[in-house]
Amino acid sequence: MPRLTNQQTAKLFADIGDLLEIKGENRFKVLAYRNAADHIENLSFDLYDYWESGADLRKIEGIGQAISEKIDEKFKTGKLGFWDKLTAEIPPALVEVLAIPDVGPKLAKAMWEELGLTSVAEVKAAAQEGKLQKLPRMGAKSEARILASIEAVERRETGRVHLGVAWPLAMRVLAALKDLPEVIQIESAGSLRRMRETIGDLDFVASTEQPGPIMAVFKSLPDVEEVIAAGDTKTSVRFRNGMQADLRCVTPAQWGPALNYFTGSKNHNVKIRELAQKMGYSLNEYALTRASGGEPLLFPDEVELYKFFGLPYIPPYLREDRGEIDAAFKGKLPAG
To answer: How is domain 161-250 classified at the CATH fold level?
Structure first.
């Protein structure tokens, strides 16, 4: 029987929450499943291993008796009676429909019951043909808005750009910021620093004691079309080519963990946090802290952070959770 990953288990409970919302269940019940999904997805350890060890699942935040029993059933049998019963009542593909902006649970249910629509593709086709207007309180403007929302989601989903397009833009940003007197260090992070073939969003991390002036220049760059959000230590913008970029400012002492966190893939970061946990520590994007409390351990660079875990420096392009941590422990990282 194939074992479920944390992400697969989390998606199962998130989908249950969505289907219960479409069904019209109590909102607290819906929130309980979504809350469990969020906590499971962000665990720093493998839930299946934890269950297999015989540990009490209810000790995990967000998991109560009912959800603990469902996890146990799914992991033991590979099936879940509650899911089978729920999806016999409501098509599971409606979860996709509920994800369309401007489509709530009542509308998703009406689209299914009255028009037989159970997928985003079917909703899009119906909107293009003017069929959504057959629904109560659905006019031409609302239909057009739903169609526009679907098309916007499709653009975002395919909105990754080639490294050759993203790289020059990132270099322009770094060139504009790196010589500011307030900047101690600044680097691109995320998939660009990992040299992925395609890039979604751009991420930048700056080390500074005075983030304000850096944020001001970032927001006013010629490539910026829109400021999405602006805070003291994080600013998000959208560039003229449609790419979004985030700039985070950290203190010099936080530089190592921050650059590491915002560079690694999600699964690479989970593995690093698991190493910390096994050593009795908790690692976040700013510092390493003993689980028992006390002052956080700060790292001025990534080399020292990896060294703490007994690892050589792992180059950014390898941080994809494809065996690089095991290879590093064995001294078998590729050269260069």
So the answer is: Beta Polymerase; domain 2 (3.30.460)
